[in-house]
Amino acid sequence: MSGTSADGVDAAVVDVRGAGHALKLKLIAFRTFPYRAPFRARVLNAMTDGRLPDICHLNACLGEWFARAALAVARHAGLSSRDVALIGSHGQTFYHLPRPRREPGLGRIRSTLQLGSPAVIAERTGIDTVADFRMRDMAAGGEGAPLAPYLHYLLFHDSRHTRAVVNIGGISNLTHLPAKGLLRAVRAFDTGPGNMLLDGVMTQLTKGRRTFDRDGLLAAKGVVQEGFLRKLLRHSYLQRVPPKSTGREEFGGGFVKELLATARRSRLSHADLLATLTAYTARTIADARRFLPRQVDEVLICGGGAKNSTLMRMLQEAWGNTPVRPVEVLGWDGRALEAVAFAVFAYQMVRGVPCNLPSVTGAKREVVLGSMTPGKGRG
């Protein structure tokens, strides 16, 4: 899969066994394949200003990227394409409209668009490919996101501890797993920006020479501007009650331009701006506690944001006495989890097992996610 940061393809090889929701999962291999800088720039530009010929072409190009990533991670695991039963491909989200829009004659319509042609992936790899996971949930009245809470439940629900699992990618999402809770008791939603603002600001400040604040080192040198932070925390999305999901449409390029303009008017240093935005990300995650049905005993962090030590420190400060730890303490690579999730969704799709969570997305019912594109077949 490739997330809202659009910085490359995460690919995992996963051994999945079991039936229903009683699955056993083992991560065999994981690698990230960064997009080349010019290609990433084209993808990001196309999300806001792309013409139809650009989007048409990028759909095929992204299919090639995903196919190469799948074959490369299989080789990394010592496997041939014949050893792989399925590919689950999330694709690259280009637009996500979870709030319904009224269409004359059709009613209220939700929509989402992920590019990365599954036909190209299946043709290049010869492997049956499952894709288009979000739209079925939206057709059933849901927001189509977040989907990863299903995997969070499989891996991290516990009989003694109520846990929050926070994935910090471009956008952050939080999953609430009550102790002894059943799958239908899971609650989850996008909390707001994750790495998206930090990456977008760094890219603009350095004119593309640096695309992220490595380990939060620049933010660590700055001072959080509390007045600016309070203003940011009044964003309308943060006040919205779940189910809810968001993306680049609310916290993307336009929002970054507003931040930079405000910083220039206030004469903020680059370090102070990064410190304030890092604190903003931490606070939006921690403040989301108000939407949870009960307090949590511990917070588990996954995704790229877990590698930012300044962000992790601010998260711990924001959560107070509640322990904040990376999922690695439980034996999982936090960078790999979203790619693992789409392997699981592909496995469940061919078995007809629903794995959307209406308690999370707001869908009217449980549905099977994804559509199949056959590979070349096996002799």
Could you please describe the fold and organization of this structure?
With 379 residues, the protein is of the alpha/beta class. 40% of the residues lie in helices and 22% in strands. It is built from 15 helices and 12 strands. It has helices spanning 37-49, 52-76, 118-125, 134-139, 149-156, 196-205, 217-220, 226-232, 236-239, 248-251, 253-266, 270-287, 309-319, 337-350, 358-361; strands spanning 8-19, 22-34, 87-88, 92-103, 107-115, 129-131, 163-168, 171-177, 187-193, 298-302, 324-326, 371-373. It is globular. The mean pLDDT is 96.
Q: Note the quaternary state here.
A: single chain
The order of strands across the largest sheet is 9-8-7-10-11
First CA to last CA: what distance?
29 Å
Mean pLDDT score = 96
Q: Tell me the number of strands.
A: 12
Rg from alpha-carbon coordinates: 20 Å
Which terms would index this structure?
15 helices; 5-stranded mixed beta sheet; alpha/beta; 379 residues; globular; 3-stranded mixed beta sheet; 22% strand; single chain
Structure summarized in a few sentences:
With 379 residues, the chain is α/β, with parallel strands linked by helices. The chain has helices spanning 37-49, 52-76, 118-125, 134-139, 149-156, 196-205, 217-220, 226-232, 236-239, 248-251, 253-266, 270-287, 309-319, 337-350, 358-361; strands at 8-19, 22-34, 87-88, 92-103, 107-115, 129-131, 163-168, 171-177, 187-193, 298-302, 324-326, 371-373.
